[in-house]
Amino acid sequence: MQTLLTVVMPVFDDMTHLDFTAPHQFLVRMPDTQVRVASMGGASVHAEGLQFCGLERLEGIDTCDVLCVPGGKGTMAAIEEDAFLDQIQRLGRSAKYITSVCTGSLILAAAGLITGRQAACHWASRDLLLAFGVIPNDGRVVKDGNVLTGGGVTAGIDFALTLVAELAGEDLARELQLRMEYAPAPPFEAGRPEIAPPHILRSVRANLAGLSADRKDRVTVVARKRGLYP
Fold first, then answer.
1. Separation between Cα atoms, residue 162 and residue 94, nearest integer Å
2. Do 98 and 67 touch, CB atoms closer than 8 A?
3. Cα–Cα separations (whole angstroms), residue 123 to 41, 87, 160, 176, 212
4. For residue 17, what is the enclosing H or E element?
């Protein structure tokens, strides 16, 4: 009997749903793969007006081959919940691959799974990884040993294709890319701080200023509490 590759995707309230759904769309199409979506207690999860229900209990899953953690607005609340982090840490310690999209890398970092490793993150939160002893990398997809991380939100598609290639070969990744017609051609050159028009970058940074300051304070508290602060 063929052994299934098991992917666990832990979800939580106020995640960015594309961080979860983009890689999920690709991973569920891999042959001989079981993708398990789980939350604490199996509770329904609310994300930007959508509700995800019928979830597994995260604490009821024994092991996985791949741990894939999304990010989003709810990341800070997630890393402040010791019970959630303990489950991430437990699953990650035995997983063959430890992965994330966007600020999901902060969750991996807070769980102590990627200390000393390079990791991607949303550009506005990337430097917060330093509080956990993680090395920020501005790559869209970053691989460091068995740690594979994607940058902000839409990088989840590039991340997923990279992960599929790692797990099942480039041919399957290319086939899935073609089947889903992933041929990005953005209408504007504004997707990264380095290429966005200066006035757009100033506006976005101004809008995120309060959120960024709050996240920095909360991350420092969590890092010190869990003994990870450099």
1. 21
2. yes
3. 32, 26, 19, 27, 11
4. helix 17-27
Contacts of 174 (CB under 8 A, 6+ apart): none
- 3-class SS string, 120-186: CCCCCCHHHHHHHCCEECCCCEEEECCEEEECCCCHHHHHHHHHHHHHHCHHHHHHHHHHCCCCCCC
pTM as predicted? 0.97
Please check whether the domain covering 5-225 is classified as CATH 3.40.50.880.
yes
Nearest alpha-carbon partner for 133 in 154, 119, 151, 149? 119
Q: Which residues of the chain have pLDDT under 70?
A: 1-2
Q: What residue segments make up the domains of the chain, in order of their start?
A: 5-225
Active site residues: 102
pLDDT tens per residue across span 84-137 = 999 999 999 999 999 999 999 999 999 999 999 999 999 999 999 999 999 999
The two beta strands, 50-52 and 45-47, are antiparallel
SS3 of residue 15 by DSSP: coil
* CA angle, residues 185, 23, 55, in degrees to nearest 5: 145
- What is the helix (H) or strand (E) element at residue 50, kind and residue range? strand 50-52
Longest dimension (CA), the chain: 58
